[in-house]
Design a protein that fits this description.
The chain is 50% helix and 20% strand. The protein has 268 residues and is an alpha/beta fold. It has a single domain (50-266), classed as Rossmann fold. It has a seven-stranded mixed sheet. α3 links the parallel β4 and β5. It is elongated. The protein binds S-adenosylmethionine.
């Protein structure tokens, strides 16, 4: 009877010790999780600027290096879109072009001879890529690089450009209406706005369902790129004098960006 009592006491002591050990381990685990979380939190805020710079630099490098890929996807359509620039050049002489969201300068090769292009992009790391791309493209002279958002082109004078170009940019800007207001402001009378972008699929389609589903992830990996914008309708409503626009389907496995539109809008 006594030995049974002793055994039970031993077992109970053993359990108490084990629980105490587990308590200490849990506290240690909680503390180290807290410290690591705090370190990540503080580290993120201290390094936020550097992380953002690195992200922009990486995005610029990737886009400049593989931008030709987007020309692989959209090159034929860009060629058709920019074709009329040659006629415009023949009519009004060498063109003064402002390209918004210029990236690495993937469009330079479509411009007619003697085009002067001013580049605008919020990402400053594109400047060197556009410079070397312009230097490698016969007939294109780069006249400057403005680091700015197209929503607020303070550094650009009113009525100063024959042409404004935007390809695969209206999907990423924060406010399309403000960009279009700015485009109209900086264009000369009868100036042309050349645009091309991927847009939302028809609302009842399966592609639209997946565009909505994938939007949050796409926004992160695409540096703010939106899949569900009805850009054609927004340009239509922006108050240009003329609009020559058409939709097309990009031949890509990436079905989310297949529905596209492109066109030329003329300022009053
Ligand atoms: C997908 S890239 C397109 C680059 C180039 N236009 C092309 O066709 O290959 C989008 C570009 O838009 C720029 N961008 C993003 N938001 C912008 C804004 N609010 N104003 C002007 N450019 C912007 C990005 O920095 C990037 O260079």
């Amino acid at each position: 009877m006594t030995s049974h009592f002793i055994n039970r006491k031993k077992a109970s002591d053993h359990m108490t010790n084990k629980m105490a050990e587990q308590d200490v381990a849990a506290q240690g685990y909680l503390k180290s999780t807290l410290y690591i979380g705090l370190a990540i939190f503080v580290g993120y805020f201290c390094l936020k600027k550097h992380i953002n710079r690195f992200r922009l630099r990486l995005f610029a490098w990737v886009l400049a290096k593989f931008g030709c890929k987007s020309n692989k996807l959209f090159g034929e359509h860009k060629k058709k879109l920019f074709h009329s620039m040659k006629e415009l050049r023949a009519t009004i002489g060498p063109l003064n072009v402002l390209e918004i969201g210029v990236g690495g300068g993937a469009n330079f090769k479509f411009y007619p001879p003697q085009t002067k292009v001013t580049c605008l992009d919020p990402n400053p790391y594109f400047e060197s890529y556009t410079e070397s791309n312009a230097a490698d493209t016969r007939g294109v002279e780069m006249t400057g690089f403005i680091q700015a958002y197209a929503e607020k082109m303070d550094g650009v004078r009113d009525c100063s450009f024959d042409v404004v170009v935007s390809t695969l940019v209206l999907c990423s800007v924060k406010d399309q209406n403000r960009v279009l207001e700015e485009v109209k402001r900086v264009l000369k009378h009868n100036g042309k706005f050349y645009f091309l972008d991927h847009v939302c699929a028809p609302k009842q389609s399966i592609i639209y369902f997946f565009q909505c589903l994938m939007s949050p992830l796409w926004r992160v990996i695409g540096d703010g790129c939106e899949l569900t914008r009805d850009t054609g309708s927004t340009v239509k409503a922006a108050g240009f004098k003329l609009l020559d626009m058409r939709t097309f389907t990009a031949q890509t496995k990436m079905f989310l960006i297949r529905p596209c539109c492109m066109g030329i809008a003329t300022k009053e």
